[in-house]
Backbone:
């Protein structure tokens, strides 16, 4: 069984270095929060598997080639002969602003179904990673995510829920309705400050949301603070980590890198401080190199950013 099993939609991302409306060259990349996490974990030498659906098209072939090249197991992937692989366009609108457009409605990945996840879940894993993107894709994908969380929790596989709110896909109210019950199956919940109310009561402050998640069985709540680092709430207290001081060139994928680093530390049996440090290190690699995941470190490269810790 792999260390990590993650489930979701992998996309082909067509990136433009300038405004899309002005045209110009697009470059083709693998994208998808869950597959980004799988790549990050696999680069550090852990066994990672990604399960989901891609089209029986060239884009699906490309997604599988990229994942295989990164050492991510794809035995649990279904090819859908009737639906295309989802696409997204990512434009650098200005030096500081990137914008995303999805072409994923009706995609192979959005047709994810419980049946797609039975075999991967039966194979087991040390950790199941889910994001709040997948339940936004369709009714069947929402049911499949819920089923996977319940099946994993029932089989003693800890679940990491990475909220990842995508405002282009659904409203905050719809997200809250789906994600709050999902959080009840999780051991680890990862959210940015503005996402906490999607796994708790609207308007509740951080400590209230965290206390309620603990009451429902969550062990660790990681609150991402962007350039200010992250705060980890564990049952025995709160710990803060600063972000590393690096030059940010592309923040897309930073959250996925943070999650991959945290989970890698967990697989290595590191204590909370060590897990947070690795999470911050991977986040720093992601923001200071172009691409969602291309710049993530291999294990021997983890120490490259030593000395970049904030004071
Ligand atoms: O987490 C980075 C993602 O935004 C990107 O890879 C695509 O999964 C994606 C999404 O739904 O936005």
Residues:
């Amino acid at each position: 069984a792999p260390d990590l099993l993650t489930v979701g939609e992998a996309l082909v991302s067509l990136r433009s270095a300038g405004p899309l409306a002005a045209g110009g060259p697009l470059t083709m990349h693998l994208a998808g929060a869950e597959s980004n996490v799988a790549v990050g974990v696999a680069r550090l030498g852990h066994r990672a598997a990604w399960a989901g659906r891609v089209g029986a098209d060239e884009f699906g072939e490309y997604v599988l080639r990229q994942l295989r090249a990164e050492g991510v197991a794809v035995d649990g992937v279904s090819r859908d002969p009737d639906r295309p692989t989802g696409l997204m366009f990512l434009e650098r609108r200005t030096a500081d602003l990137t914008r995303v457009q999805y072409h994923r409605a009706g995609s192979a990945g959005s047709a994810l179904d419980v049946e797609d996840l039975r075999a991967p879940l039966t194979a087991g894993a040390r950790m199941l990673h889910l994001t709040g993107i997948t339940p936004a894709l369709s009714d069947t994908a929402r049911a499949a995510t819920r089923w996977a969380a319940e099946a994993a929790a029932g089989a003693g596989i800890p679940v990491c829920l990475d909220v990842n709110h995508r405002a282009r896909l659904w409203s905050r109210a719809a997200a809250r309705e789906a994600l709050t019950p999902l959080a009840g199956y999780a051991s680890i919940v990862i959210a940015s400050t503005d996402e906490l109310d999607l796994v708790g009561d609207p308007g509740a402050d951080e400590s209230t949301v965290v206390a309620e998640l603990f009451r429902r069985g969550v062990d660790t709540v990681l609150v991402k603070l962007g350039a200010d680092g992250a705060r980890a709430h564990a049952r025995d207290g709160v710990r803060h980590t600063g972000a590393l001081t690096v030059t940010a060139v592309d923040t897309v994928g930073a959250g996925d890198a943070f999650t991959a680093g945290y989970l890698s530390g967990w697989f290595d049996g590191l204590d909370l401080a060590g897990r947070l440090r690795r999470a911050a290190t991977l986040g720093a690699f992601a923001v200071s190199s172009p691409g969602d995941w291309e710049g993530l470190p291999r294990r021997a490269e983890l120490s490259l950013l030593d000395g970049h810790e904030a004071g």
Q: What stands out?
A: Helices lie at 33-43, 58-69, 114-123, 139-154, 172-183, 206-215, 254-267, 272-287. The chain has a mean pLDDT of 97.
